[in-house]
Amino acid sequence: MVGKPHFGKTQVMQSDWYRALTKYEKPHSGKAGWQLFNTFVPYITLWAIMVYMLQHGVPYWKVLPLTLLASGFLVRIFIFFHDCGHGSFFSSRTLNRIVGYVCGVLTFTPYEEWRLAHAGHHAHAADLERRGEGDIWTMTIEEFQAAPKRTQLAYRFYRNPLVLFVFGPPIMFMLLSRRPHKGADKRERMSIIITNLAILAILGLASVTIGLRAYLMIQIPVMGIAAIIGVWMFYVQHQYTGVYWARHDEWDPMRAALEGSSYYKLPKIFQWFSGNIGLHHIHHLRPRIPNYNLQKCYNEVPVFQEVKPITFWKSLAYMGLHLWDEKNQRLISFRELKRGTL
After folding, report:
1. Residue 201: CB partners within 8 Å, gap ≥ 6?
2. Which range marks the domain in which residue 184 is found?
3. Average pLDDT of each block of 10 consecutive residues along the chain (342 residues)?
4. What is the four-CA torsion angle of 249, 181, 273, 261, rounded to 10 degrees?
5. Is the distance from CB of 136 to CB of 239 less than 8 angstroms?
6. Those residues with Cβ within 8 angstroms of residue 43's Cβ, 6 or more apart along the chain or in another chain
7. Which of 92, 188, 248, 314 is 20 to 30 A removed from 326 (C-alpha atoms)?
8. Structural domains in the chain (count)
C-alpha cells in the first residue's frame, strides 16, 4: 500500500514529478527491436531443439523442461503484445499493430479484441461499480450473501485455486479466446477471425512438416504454462492485502493506480521474463510507458519507491482472498466470512 498521505487526483496531477513522467513515455525503436531479437531468437531456437529431440526419439520427459523455459519467453512475447496494445512499444501505430497481431497469434490472443477489453480494465480498475471488463471476477460480501445459491457455488468454483490458476488459464487462452465476447464490434470480430485463421495455418503447416503430434506436444505445455503465469501475474497485481477499491462516486483514478495496483518485486531473471510488469503501480498511472522504461522510471522517481513491494512468497497467501469487505475496506477469505470474524 502507498505510504500516507494518500495520493488524490488533484495532488498527483499538479505534482512536478507527475508531469515529468512524459519523458519515460517516449518509445525507442532500438530498444524495442533488441527486445524482439533477444526474445524471438531464443524462443524459435528452443522450438527447433524440442522438435529435433522429439523426432530423434528423445524421451518426452527430457523435452518438458525446455517447454518451461520456452513458456517464459512466451510470457515476454505477451508483454510486447501488451505494450503494442497501449501504443507504447513503437512510436509507429502501424508497427505496433503489426507486431501486436504477430505476438497475438503466438499467444493465441486476438489483438483488437484484447486491446479494447484491456483499455476498459485500465479505465475502470478498482471501481466497484464498473467491474467485469478485463478483470478477475470479484464480489463484495453483500453481493455474495444476497446471490442465489447457484451463483454462490459458481463463484466459489471460479475462485478455487485449481480453477483460477491451473485449469482456467489454458482454457481461457486456447479455447475461450477463439470466439467473440457478447457485444464485440466488427473490428474485434475481425481480429478474432484473423488470429484463428493464422493459428489454423500454423496447425496445417505443422501437420505437413514436423507433424501435428509433435506440434501439440510442444505447444500445449508451452501455452498452458505461459497462460498460468500470465493469469497469476495479473491476479496478484490487483488482488492483495491493502489494495484500494471504491464506489464510483468516491473512486479516484490516481489512487486506483498507486494503491490499487501492486509492485510485485521478483528476482531479476523473472522480472526480465515478465517484462517489468511487476512495476504495475507505475504502469497503471502511466500506461504509455513501455516496459523497457519502467525500471528506470522507478529508479528515478522516489514516489514510486514508497509503494511497499510484494514478494513471490508473500503473494502466495493472496490465493486465499475471495471477497471485498466494503465496511473494512479489505479483501477477505471465505473462511473469514464463515467465521464471522469481520
Report:
1. none
2. 9-339
3. 47 74 96 98 98 97 98 98 98 97 98 93 93 89 97 97 97 93 88 97 97 97 98 96 94 92 96 97 96 97 93 94 95 90 58
4. 10
5. yes
6. 70, 73, 74, 77
7. 314
8. 1
